[in-house]
Amino acid sequence: MDKTELMKDVLKVTGIAPIIAYAEPEQAVPAAKALVAGGLPVVEVLMRNEHAMGNLERIARDVPEIVAGAGTIITLDQAKAAIDHGAQFIIMPGIGRQVVEYCIDKKIPVILDGDPGHDDAIAWVLARASRELGILAVTSCCGNQTIEKTTYNALRVCTLIGLHAPVGKGCPHPLLNDVMNAPSVHGESGLDGPALPEPAFEASALSAPELMAKVLRESPEPVTIVATGPQTNVAALLLAHPELKCKIARISLMGGGIATGNWTPAAEFNILVDPEAARIVFTSGVPITMAGLDVTEKALIMPEDFERVRALGNPVSDIVAQWLEFFYKFHRSIGYAGAPMHDPCAVMALIHPEIFTIRPMYVQIETEGEYCRGTTVGDLLGFSGHAPNADVLMDVDRGRFADLLVEAIKFYGEAEA
Fold first, then answer.
1. Which pLDDT tens digit goes with each residue over 162-172?
2. Burial 90-116 (b: 16+ CB within 10 A, else e)
3. Taking the CB of residue 36, how many other CB atoms lie within 10 A of it?
4. Which of these is catalytic: 331, 342, 352, 386?
5. Is 361 helix (H, G, I), strand (E, B) or coil?
6. How much is the pTM?
7. Is 186 assigned a catalytic role?
8. Cα torsion for 220, 161, 141, 352, to the nearest 10°?
9. Which among 44, 160, 224, 416 counts the fewest CB atoms within 10 Å?
10. In Å, how far are 194, 253, 257, 258, 393 from 291, measured between CA atoms?
11. Beta bridge partners of 87
């Protein structure tokens, strides 16, 4: 296989864009330019050997979009260690294929925190199907329905998709707010529609924040939290265990909206349920990916896509198709052309960031006010002078999003086979 194709394969599978320091000097700069022309992200190259150093100098001089730095990577084991510590690309002459295979096998460790909920459940279906993610734990939160109902739903969804990870029951109410639910959208159970299997296991004896803390403490590398409900559990974790903040690689959350709300004119539901928790998260200093209404209401799965999912013909695809139909009933009644995949955006951003338009931005949470409590205030024009604290998803390739979701659900037929 051509080396440039190998690089593209690694990007597709891992989100990592590698640069190969070609042994042949005449190939180094053209290969680097090809990556940039193909829209691959800026990367940093860490290597040192006789050929690579000269090639890095050429790349740094002739391809300014790429940062070429020197390190002391010599062996395959050192390359693997550098990847484990966050290096964004290392491939050395002679060990390229082995490093590619290591990157492909390596998974992003994640905790799924949510309040299922149809779109939460579909987000978890997507996460379980992804070979890029390693799910270490699942935690429920109070949002779309009460904590008893969302925990039961979490256990049923995990049983359906064969996700064998500990499930922690979340905080029973927001930090300061009264409980707020959304039965008009998700039904009285929080996950109305098709019958689901009864849980094959019980929830952990640990609460959601304590289960999160245990996973972070025991993980050899920082863990990403995918939070698709109110931020209560994540805030409780940060308050109770500030020493573990460094073990959180990123929080990829669904919540908010820079332009508008969906539960009040200004506020989106997940943030409105617990604005104080959201403020703790956004001021924590942990890297944040924000999938708000600006993007999620563009990530529509259309009725014809429901049929594509159903046609896959596996036990999970049929359930997902019925979830989509139930979820769409409410949204069709208020004028939507399809079912907005709010929560799956927070997962998809980790595994296919290339389909999104992402804007770094300073975002603050309004916790006061008669009209604007729960608003995510995005500093679009830089008035505050604050550095960005979130990577905000602003747009998405809708067709590609739908294709990737359908493709992911094929996994459940393959797993059964």
1. 999 999 999 99
2. bbbbebbeebbebbbebebbbbbbbbb
3. 16
4. 342
5. strand
6. 0.77
7. no
8. 60
9. 416
10. 27, 6, 8, 10, 5
11. none
